[in-house]
Amino acid sequence: MGFHNANSSGTLYEIMGAERNPSLTHAQANTLKSIYYTSGGYDEFEYELNTYMKNDVETEAGGLRIKNVYKNDGAGTRYLVKSYDYTEQVNGQSISSGKLFTEPVYSKSFTSKIYFEEKVLDDHREYAILPLADAMGRHICYGEVTTTDIDDGQITTKFHVFEDDQSKFGTGSLDLSGHKWYYKTNDLYDLSPRAINGSLPFGSKSFNGSFVGYPRKIEIFDQRGKQLNSQDFEYTLNKNTDYTRGFTSLMTGYYTNNSVSEKSYKTYSWGFYTLSLGYPQLEKKTTTIYDAEDITKSLTTVTEYSYHADHPLPIKTITYRSDEKNNARVQETSYLFESDSRAYYANLLTLPKTRTSKSSDEETGTALTTLSTGVTEYGTNALGKLVPVATKQYTGTATADLLVNDVSYLYDVGTGRAVGSKNNMTGLLTVTIPDDNGQYSLASVVDAEYAECAYTSFEGHDSGRWSYEGTASTPQCDQRYQDCLADNNDCIEEENDPPSQECLEACRQTKYECVAATQKSAYQVAGLFGNYAFDLNNGRITSPTIQGSKEFRLSYWYKDGTVSISSLSGNTLLASRTLDGWTYEEREISRASDGVIYITGSASIDELKLYPSGAEMTTSIVDPIFGTASETDVNNNTIFYTYDAAGRLSMIRDQNLDVITAKQYHIAPFFNILTTSANFSYAAEDQRIAVVSNERWSVSVDGNPGWISLSENTGTFNCDVIISTAVNNGTSTRSATVRFTSASGQIRTLAVNQGFYKGSFSVSPRSLSFTETQETHTVEVLSNTGWTVTSDNISPLYFSETEGLGNGNFDVTLEARYVGQGLITITFDDGSDLTIFVNANAPEGDE
């Protein structure tokens, strides 16, 4: 974005000549303009084109930069909160600090057929011969940017960048020794590095690894000119190549003239692969933070980077932090890639392997000593992906006697998802039961193995290691619920009120009905804790396999029937209570051997838990639309959460459904349209106008002109209104005002302008001469509209046609003797006319 100029001028076959000057209006297409908040206010962003100095003249460049940020309270008050200035002072003058690193040259290529290795290759595209990406993807950089913030005051940032590679390499030639290249064939990477020995397998060497545009130094000053901090950057040239992209046809050129049949090329080339010989990588970064009142006081952080020999991945970073007294703290981090390349093949980011912290104290004379060391060990999960399997923390170097923390991580043997951890120092296990999609946690259990636990509330995405028939919800039903909330005009009793609780319940019922209709069997019913419970009349529930002889806790809520638990050697009821028609039971069960537990019966069952006796389980139910619906602690006490239509927490209730907290939200109404004018051509057209609102509104056209119509007359919340215009056959522009009015009385107007039809026409010839009677001339008319023919005072003239539509011609004949002059007038439908001068010199006796 930011480079479109909507200019179609230029010659099709010329590399140079296309009009590429930037256009601010067109460059802002699809660029973020504003952000609206539920409080009623919104932020606005103002942009401007990039600029740079060219021959001492400030010149616009392609792309946008931010100029101002405004806040609007939604009630008409607008104020500037942050502004950006990109100038610098040179010899007492304020000039643009922009520096243009690459100026692209564009071409429109043609379609051609070229035979190469018995393949026909077509090329028909537009591309840049000198692309913008030549400078690290930044075609322009700024040496100085000053920001003025309403809260933080004025901050000036000075950027010092590499403007050419000579500043990094000098004037000598680039040494390619030690570089590596990789070759790609048949979509398979051969990752064996091959040394460059003065030549490449195909084509010629090219250096694309430019330092141009990379920062060398960044300095930040406050409004008093006091330096706040500085950053210095040092780079090295990575001696690797990018992977090749295989055989690629590249064709640049143009015809010597516009004759398609001549097909003469001025330039022509083939490229077989893409090869980039190295690129800059950060070697050292130094950050210094100053005390604005005393610049001698500072804190300096230096980070050094080491990279892998064959791949562009860091293998170690060392960070030094010291103050003006030379008190230092050092952290070294080495990465997995240093010794195990599986991280690369697993397409993972570089993973930390060890972290070591050291410190010294200049005042006490303490040398640099190791404070702590952290080590991460990696392995593969059930899916073969590289994952951390253990972390260890030492109070010094990594020796066994200094080990203070040792944690291993657990993964599901089927899905490979992380499901818990074990503290190897204490032996304490903590496991998590994730939902079926692995997006959030359903339950957390302390002091239990993952294989021994199960939990579900039957929401459709949370089987929780139980097996049961039926599915609780579908994406279509979730969408139907959201649509119900969005179209809630019937749920609102008063203007600006949120949907009522009855409306929310009605929308939930819509979702329940959808679920029932889309399932072969309606196993789910309305639940106590979430949206659903399970109907045991239609199927049984099976636990995961329990290993060995052990005692377990089994708890659940049920209503309207009975629950039976089978395959047990022991079954003792420990607790029972009722709530809102539901009964809670907690049982201790035991097994004499491996096996499963079957749950059958005729009741509706909800909140089903299984875990070893002595363990502690906490659970939560997550509504995919609103968030947490309920939370249950280790003592089976539950907190319930209720939300309004906007997703805001409105009520908290305890395990007895008594209200603990109730919230009401009073939000200032906001209302706006995202444009204030719409321009139409003479033809029948449609334009979509976006309305942003948190209340009801209406829309009308002042005066109700017959040529403009609206798709909507009223609306609620955000909506689009389509404005349609009829054809304008008149001879002038016409205008109208569309008025948007909110329920709170806010008014926004849209100015609509429609152009008129403008004909395109010509007449040839523009003069006629007659010397004898019965002489005839032909007149050609080129037009995109209708036309009529008349003459003023030469009565003997005869026209073969007196009107026409579009292109045509007519004959003009002098039928009788006449001497004199006059005009023929061709009048077009848009009111324009053209005249033909007539000179007749056919006196008596010529017949």
Defining key terms:
847 residues, mainly beta, 24-stranded antiparallel sheet, seven-stranded antiparallel sheet, 5 helices, 63 strands
Give a written overview of the molecule.
This protein is mainly beta and 847 residues long. Helices cover 5% and strands 50% of the residues. The strands form twelve sheets. The protein has a 24-stranded antiparallel β-sheet, with no helix packed on it. Strands 30, 32, 33, 35, 37, 38 and 40 form a seven-stranded antiparallel β-sheet that branches. The longest helix has 18 residues, at 501-518.
Structural class: mainly beta
Quaternary state of this entry equals single chain
Number of DSSP strands?
A: 63
What fraction of residues sit in β-strands?
over 45%
State the helicity in percent bands.
Answer: under 10%
- The coarse silhouette is extended
N→C terminal distance:
75 Å
Radius of gyration: 39 Å
Detail the topology: elements first, then pairings.
Layout: H1 24-27, E1 34-36, E2 42-54, E3 57-72, E4 78-85, E5 87-90, E6 93-96, E7 98-100, E8 106-108, E9 113-116, E10 119-122, E11 126-128, E12 140-142, E13 144-149, E14 153-161, H2 166-169, E15 180-185, E16 188-195, E17 215-221, E18 227-241, E19 277-291, E20 294-307, E21 314-323, E22 328-335, H3 342-345, E23 352-361, E24 366-380, E25 386-394, E26 403-411, E27 418-423, E28 429-434, E29 441-446, E30 454-456, E31 467-468, H4 475-486, H5 501-518, E32 524-526, E33 532-535, E34 541-542, E35 551-559, E36 563-566, E37 570-579, E38 582-590, E39 598-601, E40 604-612, E41 616-623, E42 627-632, E43 638-643, E44 649-653, E45 659-662, E46 671-673, E47 677-680, E48 685-693, E49 696-701, E50 708-710, E51 714-716, E52 719-725, E53 734-742, E54 747-754, E55 761-764, E56 767-770, E57 775-783, E58 786-791, E59 797-799, E60 803-805, E61 808-814, E62 818-828, E63 833-842
Parallel strand pairs: 47-54, 56-63
Antiparallel strand pairs: 1-2, 2-3, 3-4, 4-13, 5-6, 7-12, 8-11, 9-10, 13-14, 14-17, 15-16, 17-18, 18-19, 19-20, 20-21, 21-22, 22-23, 23-24, 24-25, 25-26, 26-27, 27-28, 28-29, 29-41, 30-40, 31-34, 32-33, 33-40, 34-39, 35-38, 35-40, 36-39, 37-38, 41-42, 42-43, 43-44, 44-45, 46-48, 48-52, 49-51, ...
